[in-house]
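Below is just one:
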Amino acid sequence: MPYGAIVQGPYGWQRAVQMSVAIHKLTESFPDSERFGLINQLRRAAVSVASNIAEGYGKASKGEYVQSLGHARGSNFEVQTQLVISTQLGFGSKSFRETAEQLSDEVSRMLVARMGKLQTRGR
């Protein structure tokens, strides 16, 4: 599948990529002591959301696609949990955090909607 198909294809993928970029920007201002803690965890979970959407889109069956979207949803819940923790610790700028939270909420809604449609009909 060419790169262009990915950019235009998977439902929610572009928003998940935007969320990953927002998370990266947010974590740039976290304390250095969190480099191997919350910074790493948040970035990996955010990248996992977009990656699982793309992986599922490239799978051969609808069931595999739904399963990958479920993995993406789980990773998105990790992102949301880690955003709560970083907020309570006072890490990151409010504007970057709000952007990341909004994108994560949007991705969550998109994943649920897409999974529902796939489970009742086709791609």
Summary: The radius of gyration is 15 Å. The chain has a mean pLDDT of 90. The chain has one domain: 3-120.
